[in-house]
Amino acid sequence: MMGHSSLAGYLPLCDSNATTLEMGEREILPAIKEIPVAAGLLGADPTRDIGRLLDRVKEAGFSGILNCPTLACVDGMFRQNLEETGLSYAKEIEMIRLARERDLFTH
User: Strand, helix or coil at 105?
Assistant: First the structure.
């Protein structure tokens, strides 16, 4: 993302879901016609209605989603604090369920 390692998705550098959509719509999807393209989404995003985000992902032309970055890689007190503020692993699981309802593949 923006020339940084994929680990930058775990840092508050930008709205990673908006960046994924923008890059997909402007750069990736217009160039890739015959290969399924997945959007890497932060399912725990507390600022978004995930159902509406997934609708927009599908409308843009993505074939599926990846739950990335994920809270599954975070543990200890930091994970507990994230969960308490609404950034929860349960939201990530819910995003995957909602994606399947929209016929988006998941990984």
Answer: strand
Cβ–Cβ under 8 Å, residues 50 and 76: no
Q: Bridge partners of 39?
A: 65
For residue 35, what are its two tokens? 């290969």
DSSP state of 6: G
Domain coordinates of the chain in residue numbers? 13-106
pTM score of the predicted model: 0.83
Tokens of 14: 């930008």
Report CA torsion sign: 49, 102, 88, 23: negative
Express each pLDDT in 37-56 by its tens digit: 999 999 988 889 999 999 99
- Cβ atoms of 95 and 67 closer than 8 Å: yes
Say which CATH class 13-106 falls into.
alpha beta
